[in-house]
Structure formats: structure tokens, C-alpha cells
Amino acid sequence: MISLNNIMLMRGSQILLRDVSLVIHKGESIGIIGRNGCGKTSLFKALSGEIALEEGEIEMPNWLRCSSMAQETPGSSRSALDFVIDAHEEYRRLETSIGEAEEQGDDNRLAMLIGKLEEIDGYAVKHRAEQLLSGLGFAVDDFHRPVSSFSGGWRVRQNLAAALMCPSDLLMLDEPTNHLDLEATIWLEQWLQHYQGTILLIPHDRTFLDSVIDKVISFENCKLDVYKGNYSAYEKQRAARMALQQALYEKQQERRAEIEGFVRRFSAKATKARQAQSRLKELNRMQEIAPAHVDSPFQFQFPELGQLPAYLLQMESLAIGYDSPLVEKISLNIRSDSRFGLLGFNGNGKSTLLKVLAGQMPALGGELVKAKKLRIGYFAQHQVDELDQLATPMQLLQNEERKATDQEIRDFLGGFDFRGSRVDEVISIFSGGEKARLALAKVAWQKPNFLLLDEPTNHLDLEMCHALTVALQQYQGAMMIVSHDRHLLVNTVDEFYSIHQGKFTEFKGDLKDYERWLSHQSNAGYEEELGGSELQTSKLDKKEKRQQAAASREQLAPLKRQERAIESEIDKVHLALKKIEEALIDEALYTAAQKPKLNDLLQQQGKLKTRLNEREEKWLTIQEEIAAFD
Fold first, then answer.
1. CA atoms of 443 and 453, how far apart (whole Å)
2. Which residues pair with 215 in a beta bridge?
């Protein structure tokens, strides 16, 4: 048990916490949330003894072993594997002592040390370190490379592996999913679910948080408020609490209306089975928790785009890579309303594809056909690093080719929480999260009609991630996203494509299906290492399995036929509605002479919308019946 007793915590002259008392019980998994700069990381440092309190005290048991994740790793000639093993200090001490005892021929001491090594399961330490590195995306060839040969993002992963390697009763992880891809994020999530000690997490990934924690501690007005349950439960509790505050009632209703608009918009595009069903469920849930975010400092939108060409970009047999192709034969048409998520293990070519499409590197083969009016907005971590550090936010947007008044720029930056004198401060003094927000603001300001986003939520807090998700829902153009943030993907993406073993293919499922596929891949790799006889006994009877699959297909067949027929009808209704909407744009239609034609078009539009709602309701019913077979 950890007790915070009437503590006051400050950073410089700023009070972060005042007169706070709190108890953290053994075995709890807690998410620590709050806006950037509120004091989350400072609280971690106070718990680990790195900084002192102004008032009060923190009580911890003497036996408590604490492990935390370092934020920086200086270059070192130590191998990645040795770096991770070094975190197990007791093992390293015993290893050194055993070597000394062997040199001195001290058999009694050697026997005693070997006994202690067995007590801590020391013979499995190297294997555990290899498992941690492998789970976090390192190839076997990387294990023995020196730390100094890795980029900053990969060193962060090594820090995470070291924190997990260190024996602990209290594990404190500050933004652990930064620089992880989706596959490594899912692996970490599963690892933490089996951790036996107490977990404190500072997160930005809400899906990850929902799967790991059972309590939320929220920084609010220099206090720590406690909410039972995961992050989704916190949102609902906070929404209910804030609904009681009359001053926020009107703003809440406006936000609810916006979310309802998103739900209607995406239900009208429900022609993809599993993805669309997941989307509708998530959007309806977002409507419930909208009030929890009405006091967010982030309220921004991507600019209106006007008329868009039907197709923005076409890829024909595209080959991407560096010296040799990573992926070949990529063929895909990007429509003006395409919303793609890219899946695949790290290093398979997701980021490389975005770079090629953004013109940051050349293709190795094939053809890219771009529409004349194509405007690409590209966001990646190196875009953040390349911001002019001596410029101000105002100057950064003034330098873009878009005419606007200073007030319009200030209003736009305000949506990203750059207000007042902050818009005239040099970028070099901003935090990593603030720079990421500014880089996103720059991309949005460029009015792109095709967004390429490579891990856009890295370094963003939960409120900004939520605001970005809402903004992308409203965005009118096409997008292609690489992200480990499953909540962002589920709420903004219509289709998934995967890059696996050099092949680019459509992934016909939702993210739950992808997680199951990842689990199968992991199990298949494990089974491959087993002996033939063990593998044989672990498999289900193949004949029985085929019979079950055949019976399931037979029952599903009529539902699938209905599904295809309804989707075809929905597409036809959409096409008819689009033609009517195009006709209604004509100003000449609104004269007295054209009134009968206008009324006829409006009546047709009403009937089509009614038909569309009926077909979508039927489609959702069929999806639920199909899902029952999973």
C-alpha cells in the first residue's frame, strides 16, 4: 500500500497538487490522466524519490521494488540484449560474484551464490530479455547491436524492455506506447494484463488503457480525483458529474448534436461489413461520453475543401523500398472519400509507403497517377523534428501559401490550445507534445485533400487524441493512417490494408479480427519450434474442423446473400441521392418557374432517405446475425 498524505507538489512557482491525500492499494492497475503540464510526470518523480515534496509525505513499504521507464538513453557500446539484462541488477551482481568465486576457487561461496541464482530464476534471465525485445519488435539480429546504433524511437523501446525486465512490485510507465507500432502495443497490453504487481500508467492510448487499468486518477484543479473502472467508465462518470453543472449544459447539447451528425454521416456509408459495424457502435458510444470532453482546450476542424475530384491518386504495380523492394505490386485507387488504415509489423513498409506517396522518397517501380488538384498533407515524427525552432506559431502558418488575416490564424491556433502570447513564443521552448500539436496544426492549415498520417498520436495527451479523432471524423477528404491507437483507427477508418511478407492486400475484417490474426501468428511461430509429436497432439481433429466449417458456411450463405443484396441497394440509393443533391445546387432551380421541379426533387430526396434508413437498419440486423457465428 502506498499513501500520499496531505502532499503539495510544485514545479518552479506553479502549484501542481495541493493538500492531496490518496491510497494506492497493492495489485491495482491505475491510469494517471490530465492535461499536458498538469504534473503527471512530476508525480511519478516524487513517487520514485527523484524530486522532493513541498509539503506532506509519501509512505511506501520498505520491501517495495519500484521500476520505471527512462525517457532518454544515451549512446552506449553495450548490446541491446545486455542493456536490457542490466536492468536486473541482482542478477548482474550475482553474475559478477560467481565469476569472482570461480577465479578464487571458493567452492563454498560459489555453491551459495548458485543457490541464490536459482532462487531468482537467473538461468532464464537471458531468455526473458530476448522475449521482451522480440515482443517489442526487435529482430534477433538486433539483439547484439550496440545501443548507439539505434534511433531514438528504438532506444525508447529498449528503455521499456529494461523497465519490464527489472523485478518490481510497482511498475510506473510514462507514455509507454509512444514509438510502438500496433503489433508491439497489443503485445505490451497482454504482458501488462499478466503482471502481478501494482501498475501506474500515464497514457495517451485509450484502447490500451481500457484493456489494462481498473482505476483512474485524474488531475483536476490541483487535486487528484479517483474514478473506479477503466477509461471508458471514467468518461461516463465524469460526463454524469459535469452534466450537473448548469453552466456546461448548453455546450454539452451542442457537442451531442455534432456527434449525432457523425453517426448519421458514417451510417450512410455502411457498405463494409465488419468495419462499418464496429464504426457505428463506437460512434454511438462516443455520443454517450461527449460531455466528458466539453471543457477540453482543443476544439479544431480541418478547413472546408469544396469540390473534390472523384479520384485523387492511383497506384499501379508500385514497388517501394530502399536498395531493394520491401513491397511490390501495390495497386490501389484513392477516391476523394477513401479512409484507409495500414496494418503490418514494424519494418514491413507502412511508413515507407506513406513517404513515397508524400513525395519524400522515390518509388522503385510502378506508376503513381496524381489528380491535378491533389493536395497532400503529410504528418510524421520527422515533420515535428524539422519545425523551424526559431519561428513562432504565427510565423509558421504565415509562411504557408494561404491568405488569411492574423486574427484568423490566431483563431485557428487557439483550437490547438495556442492562445494569447503563446502564438508569439519561439518553438524551441515548446514541449514534445506542443510541437506535435503545432505540426498537426500546420498540416491542417494547408487544406490538404489527402491526409497521410504516420503515428499522429505520439506525444499527444488523451484530450488532444480525442479532439483529433473528432476532427478526422469531420474531415472531408481522403486519408491513409498508420497508428497504434486502435480507438483512432476504429473511429476514422473505413477500410484496412495490410503489408505482410512483402505483399500489400486488403484486410477484410476489423481490428478485433486483426488482433486474433496476430495471436494466431504468434502461436504458429511457437508451434513451429515444438517437436512434431507435440504439435500433432495440440491440433484439433482436421476432419471435425472441416465439418464444422462446412456447416457454418451453409447456415451463413443466405445471410451473406441478403447482405450483398442490401449493400447493392444502398449503393444505388446513395448514387440517386448524390444526383439529386447535385441538381439542388443549381441556383436556377429556386425561381418561381422551377418550383414544381424543385418540389418533385425534394419529395424524391425524402423518399430516398427514408428508404436508405430502412435498408441500413436491415443491414445492421443482418450483421448482428452474422456476428453470432463468430
1. 10
2. 30, 228
**How far apart are the C-alpha atoms of 44 and 42, rounded to whole Å?**
5
Q: Is 287 left (phi over 0), alpha (psi -120 to 50) or beta?
A: alpha
Total residue length of the chain: 630
How many angstroms separate the first and last alpha carbons of the chain? 42
Looking at per-residue pLDDT, the higher value among 128 and 509 belongs to 128
The torsion angles phi and psi of 75, rounded to 5 degrees, stand at -60, 145
Sign of the dihedral through C-alpha 525, 530, 533, 538 = negative
Specify whether the CB–CB gap between 387 and 358 falls below 8 A: no
pLDDT in tens, 278-289: 555 555 555 555
What is the 8-class DSSP label of residue 427? G
Give CA–CA dist 301/322, Å, rounded: 36
Write the CB contacts of 456 (distance below 8 Å, at least 6 apart in sequence).
379, 440, 468, 481, 483, 488
Quote the pLDDT of residue 508: 83
Burial class (CB in 10 A: 0-12, 13-18, 19+), 60: middle
- Joined grid coordinates for residue 31: 491510469
DSSP state of 146: B
* Whether residue 8 has pLDDT greater than 90: yes
Q: Residue range 217-228: average pLDDT?
A: 90
Q: Calculate helix-pair angle for 249-267, 273-289, nearest 10 degrees.
A: 170
Q: Compute φ and ψ for 217, nearest 5 degrees.
A: -115, 120
> Average pLDDT of 100-128?
89
- Interval 391-427: pLDDT, tens: 999 999 988 878 889 999 999 999 898 988 889 999 9
Q: Say which DSSP state 79 is in.
A: B
**Residue 468 near residue 456, CB atoms below 8 Å:** yes
Average pLDDT of the chain to the nearest whole number: 83
611-616: long-range contacts, CB 8 A cutoff, minimum separation 24: 611/573, 612/268, 612/570, 612/573, 612/574, 612/577, 615/566, 615/569, 615/570, 615/573, 616/267, 616/268, 616/270, 616/570
DSSP-derived pairing of the beta strands 170-174 and 198-202: parallel
Q: Is 294 helix (H, G, I), strand (E, B) or coil?
A: coil
Q: Kindly tell me the sign of the dihedral angle through the C-alpha atoms of 408, 414, 415, 418.
A: positive
φ/ψ of residue 615, rounded to 5: -65, -40
